[in-house]
Amino acid sequence: MTSHPRLFSPYDEPMWSSIAAREMRLQRCAGCSAFRYPPGPACPRCLGVEASWEPIAGSGRVLSWTTFHRQYLSAYPPPHSVVAVKLDEGPIMIGSVKPEHVAALAVDRAVRMVYVAHPDGYLLPAFEPA
Amino acid sequence: MPADSCGASLHKVAAVTGIAHTDWIEDYRRVRAGDKPFDSYGYGALAFSRAMADAGISRSDIDGLIVGPTTAYERMGEVLDLNPRWGDQADAVTAVAKACMAIATGMAEVVALVYGNDQRSAAIQYGGPEAMGGDAFLSYVYHSPWGLTSQGALYALMFRRYMALTGTQERDLGQVSVAQRAWASRNPHALMQKRITLDDYLAAPYIAEPLHLFDYCLINDGGVALIVAEASRARAIATKSGKPLVFVDGIGRADLNREATSLGPRLLEFYRPAQHLAARQVYEMAGVGPEDVDALLVYDSFSCHILFALEGFGYCGEGEAGSFIARTGIGPGGQLPVNTGGGHLSESYMQGWNHQIEAVRQIRGEGGDRQVPDCRHVHYVSDVAGKVVSLMYGA
User: Fold this and answer.
1) Domain limits at A124?
2) CATH code for the part of the protein at B14-123+220-241
3) Rounded to a whole number, what is the distance in Å from the CA of A110 to chain B's nearest CA?
4) Which of B139, B148, B160 should be substituted to probe chain A, the one whose Cβ sees the most A Cβ atoms within 10 Å?
């Protein structure tokens, strides 16, 4: 059991702590107010390095989705689906979606964030139709 | 933004004077039988020897070396016993571009481009917990906690959205795999020569839906090499070898990195802004447009690359690729031959390197049963992960 998956940068940990608290936060640039994802060292919009961790609404719209019919990862036997969501705050985020919700997916469909358990023990943000 | 015109400075600066590849079919047979005939360096060395023989040159003629991304530059140079005055490492299309740039600036005159890949026998993974790519392409691995992994799934997301926005159907995409297999059926070097129908395509299982099995490239071992030489040296080499010269007439490049990890260039733009910029560059430098192209070769790790390339490079309008293919024909006998060797889907997955030698063969007139009549201009497009690079080869 782990509290979070592999971290890719020194900026990742606060995000996973916020997910564990069921209140996902993203970095928001102190200079231009843009949210960014994935977490990183500077704001891609204005290159400012000062940022705060702000809660996101958890709402967004579907960009696309795919269903895996082959197993690649032990945690995800097929069929398993993921959805790409344009968060209302701006960034694009990938999340999982339960099989019973896949038929309702469509481009621009409103979705909301929910929290689900990964088999390794940590919480993950996922999406379902709003 | 700097001017998007790069003029004609690399137009016919260099020509391809030698091409070769390993015996992909025999490599595939032996690897599937559990044998390991060569590692990546071995495949590269075999292809390199054959490319020198094709050009009629020896190692003392070579003063530049570019190796593929699958081998270490120093070790490949050691294996080939080359001490060039200029060297680099690059993917297929960038290697050709870099060779032309080195030649244009006088850093080298005769450059060997050498690629070897033992990806099948070494069980290289392009998805799952051991997926290669790592942090260099973060989208490869960043989303795996949610179960998103593999290159195919990234293109499945891209194509699903494209379907929704354009009304394109799976059977429209299936035309690509059927046409490329038809080309491969005429190519004695292709791994998959048995023709398939649209029904075969649709009946094959999904891997990452909406992509089916035949939308995916092959995974096989092998090697490819090319000899690229400064124009006057190339003419002298060609006079001796008797092989027709194939010039690099144009080069274009543009990259999309904004929101790359979260797939923005794919999902928001279908790579189009970079394709448009690269298209203007390559067409302007070559002095030709899509209407002049005799064959189009596209980096096809997945079949949907062809649709995006046709639209992004001005062969048809946005969202029209499916109907364009049906109307025009991209297989044997079609008005726009595409991936005439069978491409990565059916010939060999040499990560763009097999397309370069197919371009040369078609312009030389060495295409055999798949020869495009009077082939003078071959256009190559690579847009992997929104890094768009394009070449125009000319007689």
Assistant:
1) 57-130
2) 3.40.47.10
3) 15
4) B148
Residues contacting B106, CB < 8 A, separation 6+: none
Beta strands in chain B (DSSP E): 14-21, 64-67, 86-89, 110-117, 208-209, 222-230, 246-255, 295-298, 377-382, 387-394
Q: In the predicted model, is pLDDT for residue B307 greater than 60? A: yes
Which pLDDT tens digit goes with each residue over A43-102?
999 999 999 999 999 999 999 999 999 999 999 999 999 999 999 999 999 999 999 999
- Counted domains in chain A: 2
Given a cut of 60, whether residue B184 has pLDDT beyond it is yes
Of B142, B143, B207, the CB nearest to A70: B207
Within a domain: residue A4? no
Question: A interface toward B at CB cutoff 8 Å?
Answer: 5, 8, 37-38, 44, 63-70, 72-76, 80, 82, 84, 91-96, 106-107, 118, 122, 124, 126
Residue whose entry in the numeric block shows the structure tokens 């958890």: A58
pLDDT digits (tens, 9 = 90+) for B320-361: 999 999 999 999 999 999 999 999 999 999 999 999 999 999
Same domain flag for A47 and A72 = no
CATH 1.10.730.10 matches B150-212+250-394 = no
Same domain, A112 and A72: yes
Same domain as A63, residue A113: yes
| Chain B nearest C-alpha distance from A20 (Å) | 14
DSSP state of B239: H
Measured CA to CA, the distance from residue B145 to residue A73 in angstroms comes to: 9
C-alpha–C-alpha distance, residues A97 and B209, integer Å: 14
Q: Are B110 and B229 in contact (CB under 8 A)?
A: yes
Distance CA A24, CA B10 (A): 51
Render the burial of B133-147: b for 16+ CB within 10 Å, e for the rest.
Answer: eeeebbbbbbbbbbb
Q: Are residue A26 and residue A66 in the same domain, yes or no?
A: no
Euclidean distance between CA atoms A98 and B33, whole angstroms? 40
CA atoms of B64 and B102, how far apart (whole Å)? 8
Enter the tokens of residue B145: 């906690």
Chain A residues touching residue B145 (CB < 8 angstroms):
5, 118, 122, 124
Q: Is residue A87 part of a domain?
A: yes
SS3 call for A111: strand
Q: Is residue B299 among the annotated active site residues?
A: yes
Q: What is the CATH number of the domain that holds A91?
A: 2.40.50.840
Q: For residue B232, count other CB atoms closer than 10 A to its CB.
A: 10
Model pLDDT, residue B1:
38
Residue A6 CB burial class (10 angstroms; 0-12, 13-18, ≥19): exposed
Bond prior to A44 in cis (omega within 30° of 0)? no
Are residues A31 and A66 located together in one domain of the fold? no
Tell me what percent of the residues of chain B surpass a pLDDT of 90.
Answer: 92
Give yes or no for residue B140 having a pLDDT over 90.
Answer: no
Q: What is the mean pLDDT of chain B?
A: 95
